[in-house]
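User: Here's a protein and a ligand (uridine-5'-diphosphate). What would the complex look like?
Assistant: Let me lay out the input and then the predicted complex.
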Amino acid sequence: MISFENVPKELEPFLGEVKGRMFLVTGGAGFIGSHLVDCLLKMGAGRIVVIDNLSTGNVDNISKDSRVEVLNERAENSKPEGKFDFILHLASMADPTAFIEHPIEIMDANILGTRNMLELAEKTGAKFLFASTSEVYGNPPAEALPLKEEYNGNVSVLGPRACYDESKRVGEVLVRAFIQNRKVDGRIVRIFNTYGPKMKRYGQYGRVVPNFVCQALVGEPLTVYGTGKQTRSFCYVTDTVAGMLLLLFREGTKGMIVNVGNDNEMSVLELANIVTELTGTESNIVFKELPKDDPLRRKPDLTKAKTLGYSPKVKLEDGLRETIKFYKGILGK
Ligand code: UDP
């Protein structure tokens, strides 16, 4: 499996930063969070407190290790004891179906949760990382691509994605205010579409990769929304985690805002065809209505991330093969 059996090469210089240190990870039982916890364990973290209300996360996602303690709490209510060297705030539902069902909880995690974690970082002197999102760019016009961190975004305050997009934007502003006015050592990562094992599966979650893979494996039609010409750039989760940790550990990143993802842009229809080919499914494709405000194109400019030593390594076909293997296990195929 492409996982953290070995520490990624680019993170090796930071083993000394991690060894024996105290981490707090909100959302650590979720998809990206649990891979990140695995990586920190592999790097020698002393103790990791995971704060996760398990709404979409699952304790089984986390490796069994006595250094990890999971508190079933919401990030905005949590008052964990102890001193932390690093606080990483990832907690938030991130799938577009949750934007309709749980808008208030999403805003609480991204606004009140961010504030609560920033206050803890201020109190304990911890280095802070906020997991923001490419959604802060909204639905950008073609001329804004590839998306640079300086681009202001084209977000609809009235649309169904507003609860997520706008609250992540407020979360970013909070981080910058705590850096400026309260001397918190903070930084912001804008995560682009990430996929891989442990993403919640079809039937529980509406993200495109688990949907297509599980549909293909059970022989159902692959549901392409709209024409399928809309694009995304898919990044395998170990690459995303490596980018996040580079931003956290590298010297001189205080106050930085950095895109992390893969810049291999493709249409949703192309993705459906690749999944069809890799699974060997007989499933066909059905076209369904495009959700409102679904961004037409998304591709990161990774120039800034590359200055930190970031470079996504996992090829889409290899990452998808791992993902297919994982869902085969879950679905008993
Ligand atoms: N999508 C799709 N079929 C699905 C799920 C999603 O065609 O079963 C499309 C969706 O409309 C979007 C893209 O795939 O254009 C990525 O969707 P996802 O929910 O994974 O992420 P996001 O929209 O947040 O980038």
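Summary: The pocket of uridine-5'-diphosphate is lined by residues 96, 193, 206-208, 211, 223-225, 230, 232, 268, 291, 294 (CB under 6 Å).
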